[in-house]
Design goal:
The protein is α/β, with parallel strands linked by helices. It is built from 14 helices and twelve strands.
Length: about 350
Amino acid sequence: MHFQHALPMPPPPTMADIAKTLGINKSTVSRALRGDSRVKAATRERIVKEAERLGYQLDPALSALAEARWRKGTRSTQRNWAALITPEYWEIEGRQTHHQLEELARQQGYVITRIEVNASTSPKVFNRQLLARGVSGVLLLPVYNRELAMSFPWAELNWKDYCWVQIKESFLSSHAHRVLNNTFSNTLLALGKMVELGFQRIAFIREPSSWSRVNIRQQAAFLQFEITHPEISLLDVTFSDSISRSGAQNEAMQFRPDALLLSYSNLLTKLDSSLRDLPFASLYVNDPNGGEAGVYSPIERIYTEAVNVLEHLSRRRETDLPEYRKTTTVDGVWVQGSNLNRKEFHGPRGKQNQVFSKM
């Protein structure tokens, strides 16, 4: 009987191997892999690439021990987060709102690095950037490009080593903890405020959102309000390219509403002139000082909640996607506007709206 002896496995690569290959000190390698901001970005990038080439794996237990020892001294490392950003984000949200997010993170002791993802981005490069910057958590900003969300290989991101929080509705369907506008509560708020102002026949005209979850929450809130306020006449009308616009508008006009609740204020321009003259409110007011009535969802509240959630996860080192995702919702606030005080409206028990009196 012959026995074939297995060759001994080569020892795993060490920081010393990386340092020797690059001709730098081992301590520099250690600091770079921990994300120490005192190591130049270019040097960190070289070290990370070499670590990947050699197959070096950072031991999380030793890393945590080294960080604890480091923090006991007089020196401290910079705490880093990353923000995953797509090109469309800047066009829709604007840079000023993103600066608010960075300032809120700074107040918690974190610095946010912006990492853009587009159609040509490699997941490997993205993972390398996270490692090179010593990131502990990632804020997933809204992905507004459906094609990018469907085609990008999100599964190849290194989810297991970082904490993740998704902000607002997005075409990216991750299982990260998330912070969203409270669409259900906001719809109830708008309907309630309109009734308080004396409107008795309200047509809720909705243009379907890109996200089915939003449509479901809006419809659920409408149905609940309809049940709890039987004395109010309500109509739910869906208005889109896939549904006959003339049919939807005819249904609304036959209902003879005294006010409209619109899912978006720009929907007003698509309506017949007889409907455009009615008092109206919107579920999404862009500027609380713009004179438009409806629900305003302050972005700073959403960002504040997202930063608090990610700080909690980072402090507890709760990396990877959770088994049970938590959703934090942020309520909007009602703002009064002149568009709910149209001259055609005569009050809850006054004459019928002049717009329809000629019909």
